[in-house]
Amino acid sequence: MPATPAWPPRSAPRLFVPGPLSVGAEVILDGGQAHYLGKVMRVAPGDAVIVCDDLTGEWACAVASAGKRDVVLTVREQLRVREAVPDFVLCAALLKKPNFDLVLEKATELGVATIRPLVTRRCVADKLNPERALTIVTEAAEQCARTALPRVEVPVKLDALLRDWPQDRTLFFADEQGGAPAHTAFAAHGGTGALLVGPEGGFDEEERALVRSHPQTVAITLGPRILRAETACIAATALWMATAGDWSFQDS
Ligand code: SAH
């Protein structure tokens, strides 16, 4: 007897939609989301779509109708509750747009809770388009099947970041001039963390001294080579996830 195919299929499209969702709720999608489902994925009534609301979690829906302008879904069942996101804050200096876009996307895939863009003296870019950033992290979250979106905060200046830094959170300062081995530092500081990475031109000496003088700062090295800022963000975040994050996750 052939096994009944699993529903929803793992290949079902995934979208973040406004919540809160519940069984029987109707989700009406228009604009880009309707176009994606209707024209790109060519869904038909009865097809499965997986939606998350970044509040309650992940739900399986069935397409009720797929018109020219909108697609209507009916929520059938909850698949997962909203995940517990590893408590990691990526404080990354703003970079040239394509490179910071990469940081937004990869940090989302890697599982960070918050992305806190920084403005430092050598930043080439000094602003971030919030709508564009939200689109990038939402698409990345849909692709990697997160049930929770990372928070993307408004860019802050380095001195404000340090002034307001909480006493209960270590700030791992990625310093190409040297520091503790990252793996050892991450393992020693438990399940909450934050990483500080500078811009293309790095921190100037005054900024470096300010960061190192902060009581919560732990300087870490990412090896003997000078990494691009986006590489440092991605590599250090991956290492933290493997050491103190949720990469030891055992499939239930
Ligand atoms: N000042 C560097 C350029 C900065 S690299 C130069 O001499 O050209 C951009 C950022 O990546 C740095 O500010 C630092 O936060 C991080 N970074 C790069 N390589 C690193 C390393 N080997 N160890 C720790 N952090 C590093």
Can you tell me about this structure?
- The chain has 252 residues and is α/β, with parallel strands linked by helices.
- It has two domains: 14-81, Hypothetical PUA domain-like, domain 1 (Ribosomal Protein L25, Chain P, Beta Barrel); 87-243, Alpha/beta knot, CATH 3.40.1280.10.
- It has seven helices and 13 strands.
- Strands 6, 7, 8, 9, 10, 11, 12 and 13 form an eight-stranded parallel β-sheet that branches. Strands 1-3-4-5-2 form a five-stranded mixed β-sheet.
- A hairpin with a 4-residue loop joins strand 3 (48-52) and strand 4.
- Helix 2 (97-110) packs parallel to helix 7 (229-243).
- The longest helix is centred in the middle third of the chain and has 15 residues, at 130-144.
- It is elongated, with a radius of gyration of 21 Å.
- Bound molecules: S-adenosyl-L-homocysteine.
- Residues 174-176, 197-198, 201-203, 221-223, 225-227, 229, 232 line the site of S-adenosyl-L-homocysteine (SAH).
